[in-house]
Structure prediction request, 314 residues.
Amino acid sequence: MKNFIATVLLIATCITYAQKKPNGTIYVEHPAITAVEDMTQAFVSGNTDKVASYLADDFKYYSGTTTNKDDKGMDKTAYLKTVKTWKDNIDYPSIKRSKGAYPDALEYKDADQKDLVWVQTWEDVKGVQKETGVKIDRPIHRLFTVDKNNKIKMMINYSTSTVSDEINESFTDRTNGKIYNHHENINTVRKMVHAFENKDFDKSYSYYDEKATFIDINNPDINKQYTLAEQKENDKKLFEAFDVTSIDQVGYPDYLHYELDDARVVQSWWKFRLIRKSDKKSIVLPIMLIDTFNEKGKITNEILYYSQKVLEVK
Prediction:
């Protein structure tokens, strides 16, 4: 049995090694990496002639995320035009290695790759589109082939189109729903607030969905969302520390029914008039509420904007 087990282990080891087949060498430093990064910085600076000096005559650029099966790529002449477009349209441009990342240069053993070096990079593209003010801050992954003359023959770019889509859509005016100054959802917010003012908590909380979440901008953890049960405890602490003498509406609420995502939001402004129990000090606390509704008219999320320092003033 011992010999049998040893034989099995030997076979397994051989199979493991047989599954590995080297196909070239990866470099962390290589002239091809230098050419790619130098070309990139020439692009960022808007130096068309310098970018051209790094590109082979048969250079092609491709989007790695296109779904067009007939995409023929962008040739050298067309790509060089994008250098000027970038310079004319982007403020504060930069393309730098992503944090913790570095390029790889790959020399493959394959016969059809013997005159090429593949370079892969991970970078962050940043800038601000001049006309629309849209901020560009996105990661990109790029693959390059570099020929034996250290000229870039091909670039494949992998990145999200979200920012580009926002830029393109920002060149024209468009509506995104309707704003109401009177609406049933506005009525709901007022009823909820004034029930709270009068300590009719069951009624006040009845306007929320049972899975509603709450965000307090004074929380050190900006991602913290309270449940309805947790918010009830927060409210209890408020009434333990303060007497609420009045809650008064400021201006008028807005109800925004957005086309995008069919979102339903009420923005309202209030003055909470309080008396601090510890020293009987009167405090007026301005608060902004942003309440998001579902299609059933229940509040699903509430964000409270106010200054904690106002409550702590001596």
Notes: The radius of gyration is 31 Å. Residues 2-18 form the longest helix (17 residues). The chain is about 30% helix and 40% strand. The longest strand covers residues 116-129.
